[in-house]
Design goal:
OB fold (Dihydrolipoamide Acetyltransferase, E2P); 411 residues; 9 helices; alpha+beta; Elongation Factor Tu (Ef-tu), domain 3; 6-stranded antiparallel β-barrel
Amino acid sequence: MVELLLCSLFTILPDYLYRRYAQGKRLGHEITLYSVWYELRWGITSCLMLTVLLITLVFYYHPSTTAAASFFRAVPIVPEVNGRVAEVLVDISDEVEQGQPIFVLDDAKQKASVATLKSQVTEIDAQMGLAKSEIATAEGQLRQAKGAYKQASDELRTKRELFQRNANVVSTRELEDLETLVDTQQGAVDAAEAAREEAELRLDTLLPAQKASAEAALAEAEVQLEKTVVRAGVSGRVEQFTLRPGDFVTALGRPAGVLIPEDAGHNGLVAGFGQIEAQVIRVGMIGEAACPSMPLSIVPLKVIGVQDYIASGQVNAGQQLLDPANLSQPGSILVRLEPLYDGTLSRLPPGSNCIVNLYSDHHAEIASGEAGFWGGLYLHMADAVGLVHAAILRIQTLLLPIQTLVISGEH
């Protein structure tokens, strides 16, 4: 309607003024309801053609969509371990801070595991102390064996010297017994050294490894115990939290509720535009949004991202081959927008639907001279007709409360 009224100012109005003042035809006399088409046929035809052209130009270079919303991701409240709820620490709808406990699971099994592993660590510490005592004992036995070996060796050496001087003083049998005793004492020394090395190896390698393994298992058990306290991953509001003590929750399939982050939906909008506008929309374009949840407000936006693929073309592996004829409707170009000024979307409830207009800007192309005179004139005109679209958005914003509350009766 706005386009039609605007075009009539340049077509029907001049045609009427020519008929009225140049030909002397008056409204209500020569120009009536039955003769208006014949009298103003040039102006009416030109108005319709110009209106169609203007609407096409406006909607192509200045895309508009009602498929825009402040999408947000709700965080499901699920435990990392399965268990039965022992205590609930928040209400059905409550504000929570990051790291704040939400509910507690029954932790008897985890506590028992922690206590058992702590006992194992204590036992290994005791074994390490016992190993130190065994080393001291082995060292004492080694010194004793070495002393006995030295005494036997000295006695054998003395007897051999006596035997060499006078064979009648020491018998051969006595020398053989001493040699056997020396070998026996040497074996005792070797056994004592082996016992000491075994005790040192046990103290330095085996027991530390067992202790490290037990401490790692204890740390894992303490982590599992900590997981029985479910905490908020982010700051926000807990909603639909109907969990009660005695309920059984699992990591899959049974979430306890949802957590809405405090900044959810306030960072920008996501909009879907028609595929015909894929060559027009680009990063950096300025836009405006009007949302029913923020009546009588226009929010300036900026395009920060354009998805370079269309979701409807996604292929999923299945039992049937893809048939493009089964596509019910063409997909849209997904565009991400953020407010041009900080805080302008702070009052917008997450999940709100909005009307979004984007406005083209060919100033750089015109200033560079690449488009030429006529091309620059055309692009300048294409940018200028964005005022029509901006006016339409403001009219929609003004009429939206009346249309919603009075005409449609949604109240």
